[in-house]
Each structure stands twice: as structure tokens, then as C-alpha cells.
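Give me C-alpha cells for this 210-residue protein.
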Amino acid sequence: MKKFGVLIYPDFSLQEITCLTSALSVWFGEKIDFIATENKEYKSEEGLFVFPTKTTGEIKITDYDCLILPGTINPLPALFDEKLIDFLKSGAETDVVFAAISSAPLLLAKSGVLEGKKFTAGFFMQMAEVFPFIEKENFVHKGVVSEGNVITGIGMFFREFSEAVLRRFGYDIGENFMRDEPKDFSEEELTFYWSEEEYAEFLEELREYQ
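Here you go.
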């Protein structure tokens, strides 16, 4: 079993990472920690409220095989959260895989994790003029870029980003990860049944609510 963590901060985007977290947890049974610098409620950019399961003060970055950084419509609170940046800095010289999408590569750039690495991101390019820690010469105009222990992606390529992370860790996701459309399936293929054992388990669980 691999150890995965998702960093959360104000206005983080669930939509950009739930394709990945769903596959990890539902398909492959992985436990995911949700990590923040403070033990408080965080509001996602979709308006959902989330509590972290761990704080950066309770863990070491090397406790994890992979840290997932969602984008945020408002990156400044996270970018100027020194506890968060220091936490990421502690992983700059490690083998931890950092998977950052949309605006989140800003955090990796500030913490030194992106130093000397090719990357992509969904931030406005003027940010590269404002923030000297962004190595704009290493920016690649692609949906997803992997180099070394860093995987970066643009938000609209969330599926491809998820696929890159899953393949990095050797999960069997087939050839067409979440690509097939309903029109490609027959009626029989779109009709689902539990096994007798699964149905019995459901009925047993249902009795607890009756």
C-alpha cells in the first residue's frame, strides 16, 4: 500500500483532484490523508467545507509516497502560508512524488521543489513576472508534464493528470482511463447487478436503518 496525502488550503479545488482521489480510494482501496497547516474548517472553491485529518505539524513529509496539491482560484493565502511552504521545502530533496495541478505549481516553485524541473500550470503567465521564484524558462505549454518526482497539470486536463499519477505508481487502470462514453456501451453493459453475496451484504446493512 502506498501512502497518499492531499494538501488543502483556502478555496482549493475538489473538482481537479476527485478523479484521482476517487480512483485511489474506491478502485484501489488506498487511504488518503487530508493535510492542512491548521486544524480548522476549509472551504473549497465549490463551496464544500472540509476538515483536515492531519496537520503539517503532526507529520513528516517523508511519511508519504505522494502529495497531491489541488489548484485554487485564490492562490495567495496558500502561497503566503509560511507553515505550508516550509512543509513543502522539507521535501525538496526527497523522493516524495509531488502532483500539483492548476495554480498549485506556484507552491512548489516557491518552496524550491520545482527548481530546475520542467513543469506546466494553470496560472496566469503574468505571475511569472511578479514572482521571481517561478522559473519561466522551464514552463512547458502542455496539459501534463512529468519530470523527476514532480507531476504538474493544467486544471482542464484533470483526467490526464490523474492518469499520470496512477501510472507513476503502477496501478492497473487499463488503456482508456475514464475515457469511454456511454454511447460506446451496449444496453447489457449498462445494466448492473450485485452478486448474491453483495446483495445479501446490502440487505444486512439496510436492516440497521429500519
